[in-house]
Automatic annotation (TrEMBL):
Domain (Histidine kinase/HSP90-like ATPase) ranges: 147-235
Entry keywords, A to Z: Kinase, Transferase, Two-component regulatory system
Keyword Transcription in annotation: no
InterPro entries attached to this UniProt entry: HATPase_C_sf (IPR036890), HATPase_dom (IPR003594), Sensor_HK_TwoCompSys (IPR050482)
Domain of life from the UniProt record: Bacteria
GO biological process, one term: phosphorelay signal transduction system
EC code(s) of this entry: 2.7.13.3
Identification of the protein by name: histidine kinase
Transmembrane parts of this sequence: none
Database matches in SUPFAM superfamilies: ATPase domain of HSP90 chaperone/DNA topoisomerase II/histidine kinase
Length: 247
């Protein structure tokens, strides 16, 4: 009887372990499916943004430039004031078209690369905040989707800094490692309590883009001393849930 009971108990335990294993496998499959849906959704959004941005940049922007050149050659019979006003409005429209295009999608990033595009962002913000960029000499061009997401993250981080942190400096570090790309963005502002702002659009936009790359990240904030965002992007698009982030 004891042998029979022991056998039944062992069989029951084996059955329970199998059920738990199957449940875990189902859960993992569901998690991976949800990640895939999120990634596909973000990629679709980026493609639509790119389509609209290119249309504004290449079509509307070029048409405005041609119209501006035509107006410059137009004989206004000495009425320079009219000509000046038209040129001013055209220049404003051209700048607006470029701004809208750039905000939708970094159209020229594919041709100039991530580093030069970040340097352009830094130059544009030079009058408002001091930003330093440190890139590993070994840095290699990444897949365009990842580069766009990284640029957007840096852009969102600096926008939040300018709006809320009262910082005077921002540091950006980009370094290639053997298994992953490490990106660290930090500032010397007043920082924030993560739990209080994690539902805000700025943080949610940053973290959704990080998730779209299946990357790991960590916030290191010290009130009154600044914020730091550490991101590790795997080259094989896979990271263990137990990945550690230090620094």
């Amino acid at each position: 009887m004891a042998i029979i009971m022991s056998f039944i108990l062992l069989a029951y335990r084996s059955f329970i372990r199998r059920i738990i294993k199957e449940k875990n496998a189902q859960y993992e499959a569901e998690v991976q499916y949800q990640k895939k849906l999120v990634l596909e959704n973000i990629r679709a959004q980026e493609e639509e943004r790119k389509r609209i941005a290119v249309m504004i940049h290449d079509d509307i922007g070029n048409r405005l430039n041609i119209l501006s050149l035509w107006l410059n050659n137009l004989d206004t019979k000495g009425d320079e004031l009219i000509k000046k006003n038209i040129n001013t409005q055209m220049s404003s429209l051209i700048d607006s078209a470029r701004s809208i295009s750039h905000s939708l999608y970094p159209v020229n990033l594919e041709s100039v690369g991530l580093v030069l595009y970040i340097e352009e962002l830094i130059a544009n913000l030079a009058g408002r905040i001091n930003i330093s960029l440190n890139v590993s000499p070994k840095f290699q061009k990444k897949e365009i989707f990842a580069e766009v997401q990284l640029y957007r993250i840096i852009q969102e981080f600096t926008t939040n800094v300018l709006k809320h942190s009262e910082a005077t400096r921002v540091w950006i570090y980009i370094k290639d490692h053997s298994t992953h790309l490490a990106v660290v963005i930090s500032d010397n502002g007043k920082s924030f309590e993560y739990e209080e702002v994690k539902k805000g659009m700025g943080i949610k936009n940053i973290e959704s883009r990080i998730k779209s790359m299946n990357a790991a990240h960590k916030w290191k904030n010290v009130l009154g001393q600044g914020s730091r965002l550490i991101i590790k992007i795997p080259y094989n698009n896979e990271f263990s849930d137990q990945i550690s982030i230090s620094g």
